[in-house]
Design goal:
- The structure is a homodimer of 639-residue chains.
- Chain A has 639 residues and is α/β, with parallel strands linked by helices.
- Chain A folds into five domains: 100 residues, Ubiquitin-like (UB roll) (Roll); 77 residues, Roll (Ubiquitin-like (UB roll)), CATH 3.10.20; 138 residues, 2-Layer Sandwich (Nucleotidyltransferase, domain 5), CATH 3.30.420; 152 residues, ATPase, nucleotide binding domain (Nucleotidyltransferase, domain 5, 2-Layer Sandwich); 85 residues, no CATH class.
- In chain A, 27% of the residues lie in helices and 24% in strands.
- Chain A has 15 helices and 29 strands.
- In chain A, the strands form seven sheets. Chain A has a six-stranded mixed beta sheet with strand order 14-13-12-15-17-16, with helices on both faces. The first copy, chain A, has a six-stranded mixed beta sheet with strand order 28-27-18-19-20-29, sandwiched between helices.
- The longest helix of chain A is centred in the last third of the chain and has 24 residues.
- Chain A is globular.
- The N and C termini of chain A lie far apart (76 Å).
- Chains A and B meet through helix 4, helix 5 and strand 16 of A and helix 4, helix 5 and strand 16 of B.
Chain lengths: 639, 639
């Protein structure tokens, strides 16, 4: 045998092993480390999608030879310690790599929001009466009289007449798949004409989805899904009662291809990987469904519907609709509203004829998740004007009432999701989620899971910005003002302020001048979107009857501080409502009530989309909002 | 090598060769000759389906050893000449067989009735205005404005709005298959938003069947099919003009499994061969379609619809619906009316998303062919009462007007199709189709194709019965009265009358006492059905404004003689109308007009089916009709 070194030089494939997962594979020599991780399903944070500019995909090489492109995103110390950017590093020999804890996706940190029924729209009526419980798919038990010589009505007509009568269908359209029709006679004879029909309601059309022998009308489940860019959350719902049985969440596997969806579209386009992109998302949904079904001892065939709410890109990925023009002028979706399809057509593994419905979108950048939010908070029923804000990678904003609704999507950027922020991270274990500066100037933090702090997530970043401003450590423009404070140091990328440095912290957590600038730009983007819609509609702050905050960000957000930094208009605190995962709540409302679906379609078509990029005042509003809380302090009298 | 004889005894398979086709195969020793013929697709007439009692499957063994069960259906002369019943004969060695010409199926003898538009219902209005030309599938060319930043409507919605506007759909349902939706964006971009949409009209639902690039609205074809028990006739129709382009016909390949459909159901049930039965029929239809398409240089993808009219059993076979209960009490169909399905679902090879529609049936024994007939002759629009009679294997009868319609199916038996008649045969080359006894008592015949007479087909049998009666050769009960006439001989099965014995005739053609009894029973069945419906509805002969005769039988029928023998009521000759292939005419009307389809559905549900077997007077009427023309001569004053 040749010695290892020589072997390494000659051989064409290398073994790669990731710690602490222990996942390993053989890859061709020269494979980029991030690619190898993707292939193995090892999650590495990567906001830029592998272009080498976000600096998030840092890993530690334990052993092995590699070649890395030069980068300014690593400190000399990191380089000495063999920390590399996985996306810029080629594997040249057998290798073991350690993935830092900061990359860890902990699904137990995803807000599954079991209590989403609070906002499910089921209590949305002015008079306190909600949508009628009338799910997308229903089962009815039917006892028919078997045919006789006197009553020789054919089987197909015997059943359809019975269904029409029970549902009072009148002249409504009743459809039945041909395979069901073919199997019907044997089934009816076997069951002595006592069957359970599963009916799917596809708009004006009622479809016989399934016919089962005997009475199975009390066994009917569905899944409502919040199809997030980062997380996918599923609720298992009993369609006979409307109750939520169980919940489960996972990270969106597409994260490996970019943390925002534009990156993912670019990746898919460059690598002809739209099918792959769909597979990842569909697999995530299927994994959730299987987990929920197994845990609750439910047969997958008894899950007859899935309703998903996601942004336009996620919906396109799930349905494998062409999403390329979402990122290109004139920013066109392939479909805004897709009627219920057979879930199997998208690869969703429930009942083979079960239905899949995705909430309709308004435009390329205002999707079904926002329609779900509006539905859930009943903004479309408000007498007075209300504001709905969903802050995530983008900041979507809806302003309106029962008579009109306008919406926009700000290019907020993912700063509040941790991107472009030195120690920013998602809401995972060890992330600072709350931060306070006490009267003595000391910084007090709460971390997720009470773990040692390893970074700051969105709500922590918002707190940080507000607290630094309130305590004069930064001024209205975001410049550091804390000369002499020992926590303010000159770092490699300019000034930085130490937030955590205690013993026990795994590392020193800082916020840099660049971070603060990024965060202010993000909040300015959201506020400018709000302000542009308010200006367009001549809505004044005092006209706002309610402000609804939704999204993963919003769940941890300190309402008052959102006004402090000027991300929300200066309304009374009691007018601001945390509404949790409204995407899921809306999906559930649509699942449980046909009226809900009709209203969702109405909302989607009633909303007027304002393209801020071509909106004359948006850039001006954006520039004016690049102050804490704003250039025009008269907009924030309470501050 | 062993000598042949020894080889024959030891070997397990035998070669079988049929002349004059030359078709041959290896079959296991002991295989029944009829089975071997079926497998090779060699057509042998076989009314009883292989049970050994119809005596139709006679063939001549040229060479080879065989074993035949004893039968009374062969003459000693035939037995001496090695004529056998194929269904009763086992192959014991290599064998060659000659199939007599009488078995030959000549498709050029099938009445394709190009002029079916005469009765297509397109001129059916009282005011002379027909159904609007509005085919089941339409193509429309749509030029859309491509999206802009100002008009970012999604592709799916852009197209559906355009279609809705062009069709004035209002609140009507527009459906689009998910695969089409998925492919839409690329297609729209490629075609610069200029496309041709193929629209299928499925009742209240309009479906986008296909979207093509550019203007292809002038290329759209369909096929109308008369799905007969014996023959299958197809018309290729240009859906842009409504014109019939070409016609083609073939024999129903299921004939090998029984000449009537009850036999075929039994065969399929005993041999678990429903799939096989469907394949045969679907292959026949596909063969016709391919022939028509090739001959007219049309791409199969440009054929977007098929409309079939057939009896309930044929429709069930085509769609592979459970047909077992058609022959068992309580005689239930699996489906009376199946909305248009995708033709591919039944295996019909036209456009992959093209539609297949079968005309609705009324009951197990009154099918879509009869509904088509009523539609074609406009019986449902008559102010006065009219009668529609379709004489084939069964005799279906419809009586009614615009206010009511009653129908029944008589167990006429297939005597007029040649079954149970010694020299009976179908309407093929060499069949006597017209017969006259001149003033000198000589018999004058016309044969199909002017060939030497080899048998008698239905119209010839009717003429024979009438002429023998009119010339006193048989009496009112059908007994021979011609003592002393040299043509009346004692045969092996009783008395028989020689019709043809001249030199040049291949054989002596006779009609036996048993044949005459069978024919009278058949005509009695049809007349009793007519009479029962007339009695039930208190309709008198003079109330009948029109009598429509349809079916393969009817095409050659001598109207006056139909009254002579008492198969039709005694109405004035001018009230009796030959209406040709109304099954095809009705199918075409439904294909070319949505209104036609709606009317067909109305007709099917408006018709009241009378089960003659449980009808108190039917048996009595049947007995009374077993005379020429009838027991009650007052019913036939003109005779």
């Amino acid at each position: 045998m040749l010695p290892d070194r020589v072997s390494d030089q000659k051989k064409r494939t290398c073994s790669i092993r990731f710690e602490p997962s222990g996942l390993k594979a053989q890859v061709p020599k020269g494979t980029v480390l991030l690619e190898a991780a993707r292939k193995l399903g090892v999650y590495l944070s990567s906001i830029c999608g592998g272009d080498g500019y976000c600096g998030k995909c840092k890993v530690h090489i334990n052993s092995g030879q590699f070649q890395m492109k030069p980068t300014t995103l690593l400190t000399p110390e990191e380089i000495r310690e063999d920390v590399v950017l996985a996306c810029q590093t080629k594997i040249l020999s057998d290798m073991t790599v350690t993935v830092p804890k900061s990359h860890t996706l902990r699904t137990d940190q995803i807000l599954t929001d079991v209590d989403a029924s609070r906002f499910s729209g089921l209590g949305r009526d002015a008079g306190g009466k909600g949508f009628a419980f009338d799910p997308l798919v229903r089962k009815i038990y039917i006892e028919m009289t078997p045919p006789t010589v006197e009553d020789h009505t054919a089987d197909h007509e015997r059943l359809t007449v019975a269904i029409r009568n029970m549902l009072n269908l009148g002249s409504g359209v009743l459809q039945m798949g041909f395979r069901i029709l073919q199997e019907l006679p044997r089934l009816l004879q076997k069951s002595d004409y006592k069957v359970t029909a599963t009916l799917g309601f596809r708009g004006c059309v009622t479809e016989v989805v399934q016919v089962e022998s005997g009475d199975r009308s009390n066994i009917n489940y569905a899944v409502a899904v919040d199809l997030g860019t980062t997380t996918v959350v599923a609720h298992l719902v009993d369609l006979t009662t409307g109750n939520t049985v169980d919940t489960e969440a996972t990270y969106n596997s597409q994260i490996n291809f970019g943390e925002d969806y534009i990156r993912r579209i670019i990746y898919a386009e460059q690598n002809d990987a739209f099918d792959e992109m769909q597979s990842h998302l569909v697999d995530d949904v299927n994994d959730l469904i299987v987990t929920l079904a197994e845990r609750n001892k439910i047969n997958l065939q008894d899950i007859t519907a899935v309703v998903c709410a996601g942004n336009t890109a996620m919906t396109h990925f799930l349905l494998n609709l062409d999403s390329r023009r979402i990122r290109r002028e004139p920013y066109v979706a392939s479909a805004s509203s897709v009627p219920p399809i057979r879930a199997a057509e998208a690869g969703i593994q429930i009942n083979k004829r079960g239905l899949l419905y995705c909430l309709p979108s308004v435009a390329a950048y205002v999707g079904g998740d926002i329609v779900a939010g509006v539905l859930a908070v009943c903004l479309d029923m408000k007498e007075k004007v209300a504001l709905f804000v969903d802050i995530g990678t983008n900041g979507e904003v809806v302003l309106g009432n029962k008579d009109w609704m306008m919406c926009a999507s700000s290019s907020a950027g993912p700063a509040f999701e941790g991107s472009g922020v030195k120690h920013g991270m998602r809401a995972a274990s060890g992330a600072i989620e709350k931060l306070l500066i006490d009267d003595e100037g000391n910084i007090v933090c709460d971390t997720i899971g009470d773990a040692a702090a390893i970074g700051i997530c969105g709500s922590g970043l918002l707190d940080t910005l507000a607290e630094l401003f309130l305590h004069g450590i930064i001024d209205r423009t975001g410049r550091f003002q804390a000369e002499g404070d020992p926590r303010l140091l000159e770092g490699e990328e300019g000034m930085e302020f130490t937030l955590v440095a205690e013993k026990g912290a795994q590392k020193r957590i800082v916020i840099t001048q660049a971070d603060i600038d990024n965060l202010i730009r993000s909040k300015a983007g959201v506020f400018a979107a709000i302000k542009s819609l308010m200006e367009t509609t001549q809505t004044k702050t005092e006209d706002l009857d309610a402000v609804y905050l939704a999204g993963g960000f919003g769940n941890f957000m300190n309402v008052e501080r959102a006004v402090t930094i000027g991300i929300l208009p200066d309304v009374a605190v009691e007018k601001i409502h945390f509404v949790g995962n409204t995407s899921l709540a809306g999906a559930k409302a649509v699942l449980l009530s046909r009226q809900g679906r009709a209203v969702a379609e109405q909302i989607a078509s009633a909303m007027t989309y304002v393209d801020l990029m071509s909106h004359s005042d948006y850039m001006e509003e954006f520039v004016r909002a690049n102050f804490l809380p704003h250039t025009d302090l008269s907009l924030f009298p309470s501050q």
